[in-house]
UniProtKB/TrEMBL annotation:
Its main location: nucleus. Keywords: Coiled coil, Methyltransferase, Nucleus, Ribosome biogenesis, RNA-binding, S-adenosyl-L-methionine, Transferase. Residues 69-84, 103-116 have a biased composition (Low complexity). It comes from Triparma strigata. GO terms for cellular component: nucleolus. S-adenosyl-L-methionine binds at residues 327-333, 351, 378, 395. This is SAM-dependent MTase RsmB/NOP-type domain-containing protein. Belongs to the class I-like SAM-binding methyltransferase superfamily. RsmB/NOP family. Residues 532-564, 582-596 have a biased composition (Acidic residues). Residues 35-50, 610-619 have a biased composition (Basic residues). It is found in: Nucleus, Nucleolus. The active site is at residue 452. It comes from the Eukaryota. The keyword Phosphoprotein does not apply.
Length: 647
């Protein structure tokens, strides 16, 4: 048998030599030893040329040949141990798969590890490059922001604007100018152009916003007074976007969970509305029309916006109460009230127009409501029709500035004068609603006022007017969402309890613009107008004159003052009807001398009162006792005298 280079484990190869084995095993052992030596040897050393061993001639070999083979194996073992000592210097825990940079030798396993290492390194290189690019972009953004902050915006002059009238200005250019003006307004001292005032920037912003969004300039001016420029831009953007479709589950016929499962089976993509609602569902997509499903036709749900649910939730009707809905069409809020009352009690659904009440009746029949009485009366005169309600809901007619996303014509049709007219109508309806309440109700005496507008004239100013005219107070609406009402608006200051009211905006709550206020009636008394409201209706001098008129009416009971009493009764009738008493022509005279000589009407009336009293006293002294008894008896003595005479 020829010489063989044995590895460190000599026992295995001795066993192979001692037992008769085919030559393939020996060659395999030789290849493995060569691979191990090549992998352990450093790249600087030269590879040893090993002579190919000759296969054994016979199974039994001589002892000399075995000894010579062992000597050669010992020498190889020594060389391998020396190379192992050199490799001990590299003590990395990952030395099994790491490789030196200069080492090009290796086996197939090493080539596989090289491929895996290169992929990992490649990914790391990509990540490093991305981080470097992000850092560069961040630095560039910082530089741009610093330049923009220090840059002075050039506001176009009147001449430049006149030149632009001939050409069509693209909307993108107007939008950029709007955003730049808003940035200047946020840091006006540094960014403003010299010689330009704040009013010039605001006028230009109002003009650009009205042109970009298609509003009347006066409406844009109203929004800029209510909001900051940046918030006004957000409000206008949100008003152009449609609100999500919302349905309300009718718990008189179905549960929300069952309804959601039935609609999902029909291909409707929906989610619960919010945490504050237990019956609302928000619909994203639908393969079938929502207003024509079998569930809708059977009355399992009602199409109703999320904002219109809030007034009914604030009203909190209880079963068995008597509730009034002053403007009920088309029946969404009325059916929700019946749903909360569980079809118990009485609900009076009133509306001015008969045509709109047809839709109310149809929806109530479809939803299974059984405790509603519909009527058509003018809400301003409703206390004359019926009263003593426990709760009243007034969703007053308004300008609709909170639902522009539904009706884009509001941008052009509504003006500030229209808002003032609707505010006057809302005051009349709200007074009538409070007069219809029963202040002594054990469970109620509650009224909720709501509008689908965001203007202060239709909301806070109306509530402030009612607080001065009736003995009521504001209560918490118990609505967890929404923003509190304004306590100040420009030069006006409202009652501190105005923060209990709630406002909803499309750009913050993704709902229609809405306002909700909750009143409690304390008594049936009327409050005397105070402050600004008194100046609008009755002046202080007129109030004094009215008191004199009341005194005159009480005094003028005698027959001699028939003419004076008739005049005073007419004045009293005017006062009770709400007409302001006119002043005499003498008070309007501009001549100071004549005004000094002639007494004012107030003093003249008091003189008439005194004269009437004196005449009564004189007649009482001249008339005999019998006539006094025939007139007005003074007390128990006269009554006792009558009884004695009869006996």
């Amino acid at each position: 048998m020829g010489k063989i280079y044995f590895p460190e484990n000599m026992v295995i190869y001795k066993f192979l030599l001692s037992s008769p084995q085919p030559s393939s095993y020996v060659t395999m052992a030789k290849e493995t030893t060569n691979k191990r030596k090549a992998s352990r040897a450093p790249s600087s050393k030269k590879k040893k040329v090993v002579k190919p061993p000759t296969p054994p001639s016979s199974p039994g070999a001589s002892d000399d040949e075995v000894d010579s083979g062992s000597e050669v194996g010992d020498s190889d073992a020594a060389s391998s141990s020396a190379s192992g000592d050199e490799m001990k210097k590299f003590t990395d825990s990952n030395n099994k798969w790491l490789k030196m940079k200069g080492d090009t030798s290796g086996s197939d396993s090493d080539s596989d590890s090289e491929a895996s290492i290169s992929q990992i390194e490649r990914d790391a290189m990509i990540l490093d490059k991305e981080k470097e690019e992000e850092a560069k972009e961040f630095e560039q953004d910082l530089q741009r922001q610093r330049q923009d902050q220090t840059k002075i915006f050039h506001l176009p002059t009147q001449e430049e604007l006149e030149e632009d009238e001939d050409r069509v200005v693209p909307p993108t250019e107007i939008r950029e100018r709007v955003e730049e003006i808003i940035e200047v307004m946020q840091d006006f001292k540094r960014r403003r152009e010299e010689g330009r005032s704040r009013s010039e920037y605001m006028d230009q912003l109002e003009c650009d916003l009205s042109e970009y969004f298609g509003y009347l300039p006066e409406l844009i001016g109203l929004f800029l007074k209510m909001f900051s420029p940046s918030e006004a831009l957000e409000f206008l953007d949100a008003s152009d976007k449609p609100r999500p479709l919302v349905i309300r589950t009718n718990t008189l016929k179905a549960r929300r969970k069952d309804l959601a499962q039935a609609l999902i089976k029909r291909g409707v993509n929906l989610d619960p509305l919010a945490n504050w609602s237990k019956v609302g569902l928000k619909i994203y997509e639908s393969t079938v029309p929502i207003g024509a499903t079998p569930e809708y036709l059977s009355g399992h749900y009602m199409l109703q916006s999320a904002a219109s649910m809030c007034p009914v939730m604030a009203l909190e009707p209880q079963p068995g109460e008597k509730v009034l809905d002053m403007s009920s069409a088309p029946g969404g809020k009325t059916s929700y009230i019946a749903q909360l009352m569980k079809n118990q009690g009485i609900i009076v659904a009133n509306d001015l127009k008969v045509e709109r009440q047809k839709a109310t009746v149809g929806n109530l029949h479809r939803l299974g409501v059984k405790n509603v009485i519909t009527c058509c009366n003018d809400g301003k005169n409703f206390p004359k029709v019926m009263g003593n309600f426990d709760r009243v809901l007034l969703d007053a007619p308004c300008s609709g500035l909170g639902v522009i996303s539904r009706d884009q014509s509001i941008k052009v049709q509504r003006t500030v004068k229209d808002i003032e007219r609707t505010a006057h109508l809302q005051k009349e309806l709200l007074l009538a609603g409070i007069d219809s309440l029963n202040a002594k109700s054990k469970t109620g005496g509650i009224m909720v006022y709501s509008t689908c507008s965001v203007s202060v004239q239709e909301n806070e100013q109306v509530v402030q007017y009612i607080l001065g005219k009736r003995d009521v107070k504001l209560l918490d609406t118990n609505l967890k969402h929404g923003k509190p009402g304004f306590q100040r608006y420009q030069e006006r200051r409202f009652h501190p309890s105005m923060q209990l009211t709630r406002r909803f905006y499309p750009h913050t709550h993704n709902m229609d613009g809405f306002f909700v206020a909750k009143f409690q009636k304390l008594s049936n008394k009327e409050r005397v107008p105070q402050g600004e409201e008194a100046e609008e209706e009755v002046s202080a001098s007129d109030d004094d004159d009215d008191e004199g008129v009341q005194m005159d009416v009480e005094v003028s009971d005698s027959e001699s003052d028939v003419e004076v009493s008739s005049e005073k009764k007419a004045l009293r009738a005017k006062f009770m009807s709400g007409v302001v008493l006119p002043e005499d022509d003498e008070s309007l005279d501009s001549d100071e001398e004549e005004a000094k000589e002639e007494a004012p009407p107030k003093k003249q009336r008091w003189e008439k009162i005194k004269k009437g009293k004196k005449k009564k006293q004189e007649k009482g002294k001249k008339e005999p006792k019998s006539k006094q008894v025939a007139g007005k008896p003074k007390g128990k003595e006269q009554g006792g005298g009558k009884k004695k005479e009869k006996k």
